[in-house]
Design goal:
The structure holds two protein chains of two kinds. By secondary structure, chain A is mostly helical. Chain A has helices at 4-13, 18-55, 71-80, 92-109, 127-135, 138-148, 152-183, 188-194, 199-202, 204-217, 229-232, 242-267, 278-299, 305-333, 339-360, and strands at 362-363, 368-369. A two-stranded antiparallel ribbon of chain A has the order 1-2. In chain A, helix 4 packs antiparallel against helix 6, helix 7 runs antiparallel to helix 10 (204-217) and helix 14 packs antiparallel against helix 15. Chain A is globular and about 65 Å long. By secondary structure, chain B is α+β, with helices and mostly antiparallel strands. The longest helix of chain B is centred in the N-terminal third of the chain and has 13 residues, at 8-20. Classes of the chains: A mainly alpha, B alpha+beta.
């Protein structure tokens, strides 16, 4: 199937030379994606603050504009007017480059997200691989920020982040492989097309592992060790202000948006849905995923560093391996039998594995927890 | 088999926060929404009853700070006429001794609490400023007879003010969000 962008290019090349049509179509696609991302990020900032307020029985920002919708804009103007401070002994180039390295991969992820039928910037046949590769680049940016700041708290946060993201990448990718196996393709559009039944029902355990991995990847509660205000000031962006801090802030919410889109695409059936137009379905699912993330943030306290590492290496990683193995076996033999049998087996397996693994996390007769 | 460590605690916690979504927010949006203060508040400034005051200056003597200044002259019916009744509320510590000492109940503590001024001299209240009016109501401090006529204090909970603040009822969300802009 041709994407909308290809159609635009073909339509343009009737009147223009081939290279001009190619460039114009590309620019149009990039601008549309940029506008989509930036508006949604601004809306998400407002939405999270309001929703978090309601979870904590307060109001959240409600002054500027109807229901406080313009608050993020006021915040942005305030942040942009701040003085840009660079610490005296900082590694200036790295310090300057870090926000860009954090922010750019976030935008790049959106190239492979299908917002509707055919509405995708680049329908790569290795879309999943691309997103995994690009999505983990921002860890480098965060490490650069911590290293370049010449600040011990920033460096502690950066070390934590690298350890955390490297560890959580494994179960994340392994649970992703289950989806790829079942869809039989790494292309995002084909994964969406393969989900007559959303993969969250087919692979509940895979979804759980992927969701927790994503929470750690986008540094959200309860895995927000890198900006644990109660321990290490503001973490990696302690020494940042003004425009650079705004880039980090946008990057953080852009990450949340990107991963909400990825979860929607891979596990919730993408833009599929009855009655409403596909793009609206996509938005509804993205907002639902983001609400769940905010809900978790409002509920759960932060993990300790050792708990964090133990959770992924002793808990998520083996579970992801077993999940991958079982899904592979199912794809090999069971798919010819019945789809619902696969669903039943996977749900039972998820329940058993969670029960068994939670037993493993009890040490010292239940008094000491890892 | 006890179900304690299988993520049940997380689910319980999430249920708690989910229930919070449907509770009215605790936030009081101050200038638009105000809590009802204690009925026995020793509030801002004094409330002065011009017709009860005999100009005896007992209050001025009772004041530990010497804030109250009274100037009188002799009237026609062998009484004092109060020319000047000035209180420097900037130095007042709201001890209430003047109110307690008044033999004619001509002074009371107020219910107001928004007494900030831009100039120090604006804090000196003249007898016209202090006289009782609709906007200057006495509190029930040393006045138990009017205590029940005042609305009950509200703390952090939303009381329906139309009902005199006596009954707990939830104000609908749309009303409570306050205005935009």
């Amino acid at each position: 199937m041709m994407t909308l962008l290809d159609q635009l290019r073909v339509w343009l090349s009737a009147a223009l030379p081939e290279w001009a049509a190619y460039v114009i179509a590309g620019v149009v696609g990039i601008v549309v994606i940029l506008v989509f991302v930036l508006t949604l990020v601004i809306v998400f900032i407002w939405y999270e603050r309001r929703l978090l307020g309601r979870f904590q029985i307060r109001l959240g920002p409600n002054r500027l504009g109807p229901e406080g919708i313009f608050q993020p804009i006021a915040t942005a103007v305030k942040v942009l007017l701040k003085e840009d401070i660079v610490p005296e002994r900082a590694d200036r180039i790295v310090h300057w480059l870090a926000p860009i390295v954090v922010f750019t991969p976030v935008l790049m992820v959106f190239a492979v997200i299908p917002l509707g039928p055919g509405a995708i910037l680049a329908d790569l046949n290795v879309g999943v691989l691309y997103f995994v590769a690009v999505g983990s680049v921002s860890a480098v940016g965060i490490y650069m920020a911590g290293w370049g700041s010449n600040n011990k708290y920033a460096l502690i946060a950066a070390m934590r982040t690298v350890a955390q993201i490297v560890s959580y990448e494994l179960p994340l990718v392994l649970s992703l492989l289950g989806v790829v196996l079942m869809a039989g393709s790494m292309s995002m559009t084909e994964i969406v097309d393969a989900q007559n039944l959303p993969f969250i029902i087919v692979q509940p355990l895979g979804f759980l592992i992927f969701f927790l991995g994503v929470l750690a990847e986008m540094n959200r509660c309860p895995f927000d060790l890198l900006e644990a205000d109660s321990e290490i000031v503001a973490g990696y962006h302690t020494e940042y202000s003004g425009m650079k801090f705004a880039m980090f802030y946008l990057g953080e919410y852009g990450h949340a948006l990107a991963y909400a889109c990825i979860i929607t695409t891979l596990f919730l059936g993408g833009w599929h849905g009855p009655v409403l137009p596909p793009f609206l379905w996509f938005l509804i699912k993205v907002v639902a995923v983001f609400s769940l993330v905010v809900w978790l943030r409002a509920t759960l306290p932060r993990l300790r560093v050792d708990q964090l590492m133990a959770f992924t290496w002793k808990g998520l990683f083996p579970m992801a391996l077993i999940n991958l193995f079982v899904v592979a076996v199912e794809v090999l033999w069971l798919s010819s039998l019945s789809y619902w049998l696969v669903v039943a087996v996977n749900i039972v397996l998820a329940a058993i594995l969670i029960l068994v693994w939670s037993k493993l996390f009890v040490l010292g007769r239940g008094k000491v927890e890892v | 088999m006890k179900f304690e460590r299988y993520g049940i605690g997380i689910l319980k916690g999430m249920a708690v926060t989910f229930r919070h979504l449907f509770r009215p927010p605790i936030t009081v949006q101050y200038p638009e929404e105000k809590l009802i203060v204690s009925r026995r508040l020793r509030g801002c400034e004094l409330v002065w009853y011009p017709e009860r005051c005999t100009g005896c200056a007992t209050c001025a003597k009772a004041c530990p700070q010497g804030n109250i200044e009274i100037v009188t002259h002799l009237g026609d019916r062998n009484n004092y006429v109060v020319d000047k009744f000035e209180v420097d509320t900037g130095r007042c510590m709201f001890c209430g001794l003047c109110v307690e000492s008044c033999p004619y109940e001509a002074l009371a503590m107020g219910l107001r609490y928004e007494g900030a001024q831009y100039r120090r001299r604006d804090l000196v209240m003249s007898k016209n400023d202090l006289a009782i009016s609709d906007s200057r109501k006495p509190s029930a401090y040393t006045r138990p007879n009017i205590e029940l006529s005042l609305p009950k204090q509200s703390l952090l909970v939303f009381w329906d003010r139309a009902d005199g603040g006596q009954k707990l009822s939830l104000i609908p969300l749309s009303k409570k969000r306050g205005r935009g802009v």
